[in-house]
Design brief:
Blueprint (H helix, E strand, L loop, with lengths): L6 E3 L18 E7 L2 E4 L2 E4 L7 E6 L6 E7 L12 E3 L5 E5 L2 E4 L2 E7 L2 E6 L4 E7 L4 E6 L5 E6 L4 E8 L2 E9 L7 E6 L5 E6 L4 E8 L2 E9 L4 E6 L5 E6 L6 E8 L6 E11 L1 E6 L5 E6 L17 E8 L2 E9 L4 E6 L5 E6 L4 E8 L2 E10 L3 E7 L4
Antiparallel strand pairs: 1-20, 2-5, 2-33, 3-4, 5-6, 7-8, 8-11, 9-10, 11-12, 13-14, 14-15, 15-16, 17-18, 18-19, 19-20, 21-22, 22-23, 23-24, 25-26, 26-27, 27-28, 29-30, 30-31, 31-32
Length: 387
Amino acid sequence: MYKPTARRLGGAIVVASSLVAFHASAQIAVSSNDHKMVQENGVTRTSPNASPDTATILDLGASPVKVVATVNDVPGSVAGPPLNVAITPDETLALVASSTRLDPADRSKTLPDDRITVIDLKTNKVIGRLTAGAGAAGLSISPDGKRAYVANRSAGSISILAIDGQKVSLVKTVPLVGAADLISHVALSPDGVTALATVNATGKVELLKLSGDEIWRVSTLATPAKPYPAVFDPTGRFAFVGCGGDANGHGMIAVIDLADPAGKVVASVDIGFESLEGMMMSGDGKWLAAVAHAGSTRPKDAPQYKPAGQVVLFAVTGPKLIRTSSAPIGAWSQGAAFARNNATLVVQNMVQQNLMVFRNDNGQLTDTGQTIALGGGAAGIRASYGR
């Protein structure tokens, strides 16, 4: 049987070691809010006089969902998958990546950004800022809380960050693909030794092994068009990749079986709506929520235009996804996050600059009527269980 040979990327060979198993924690979630980008009648533009970006700290365990704090001057961006936020397993820190910034010479334009902001979740204050690579976008923190991996969307690389208490520093940046390929997100397995990097422009994911501060490429897998967010189930056996679909097609979820060391795409599930943007799994792996633009980003005179996006809920059994319900949301919607009891799901809306709160009754989504104003476009979100 074929056994893939991992290729080291950017450094010496180090013997692999398993990381501490992930332990689910409390109900904290962080929303990254992009104040500088707006969309009107299908046209995305900058808002040159906008206030600085912010982050909103939430308690998903409270009913209704509670805003704990708003943190000012936290650069973020709607460009890239809505996973530019990660929380350490002990809930002490949040990292927020920013893939674009306003061009200071012409604020009607944007430039790639590389900033990572560190938030102390005990004081809800910014305690640090560092740089990764150009277009810093989707990121994940290792299960032991000691490393973060950042996909640099405009550079084709992955930055490795060291986390030591409240100190976060850049270890190294590893080239992976071409800059034009748009590496978008790095998802980590529960044991912290396997990663998936989505490569949006080429319709592929890179299966990687992590060892010390080295990254090894194991294989390259083809997916439906525009892979964006990715997540592993709690067993590490299966991974799910959200794919935007082509301009006229529905969003798809690719299912990868990692029993094969090279990984194997075993299913592609149609979500029923165009332009999958965000995707998140519940902490126990029983539910998967997909967020679709569903025509809401089209010009109003376009035949595909719809005034609302859709959130679609799937029950997860191993590699099988069973669609249980869907519900209308706002426009240009982005990420989603589950409370740890699975009964609460929040969804981000860029145009409305808010969060919608849904109740999950064993697969049936119900709009609770609670909305949470954010003051800026809801661009990315993560809950503290870490996926």
